[in-house]
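At this stage, I put together a protein sequence along with its fold in token form, as given directly below:
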Amino acid sequence: MLKLLRPVVTRILTPLGRALARRGISPNVVTTVGTVGTVASALFFYPRGQLFLGTVVITFFVLADLLDGVMARMTGSGSLWGAFLDSTLDRVGDAGIFAGLVFWFIVSDQRVLAGVALFCLAAGALVSYIKARAEGLGMTCDVGIAERPERLVVGLVSAGLSGLGLPYILAVGLWLLAAASAITVGQRLLRVYRQAVSASPPTLR
């Protein structure tokens, strides 16, 4: 579903990307600003219990993750460094969001949910690392039910609805996300294992 929505969002962001490019703003600047804004918003609003407002602000900055790609394709300024920076800062932004939730759960004495949010943070990083490491070894690892867009949507939507007073939604969202992340880790490990055992050692980089 999210992959189907991406072209629609891209068309919406294209005029903004064109305007920024005309002013000499590079995609890497947009990537960096988006990440800094995401982390700062999550660590400011979430620990204070302002879950809905925090989610709205974070979502604004998360859109920069799509905007930088739109600008790179539009201006032909995509580069290896830009791709590396984007992937690296994605991990930083995700960590900021879930760290903010962990702090909120600790402050509000919800220790179990703090642990679940911490697991989601670690599992999300592991999902991304497994893919990156597999591709570095010359294998493919594009499987899984909970990739980054799905994890962000579930986390942010459940936090936002919780901020509007909907009971239990954040707990349900995080538990589902934890389960989906664990399943994704298993799917990717299995995918890599099957390729690794069928490949001869000299083919691995």
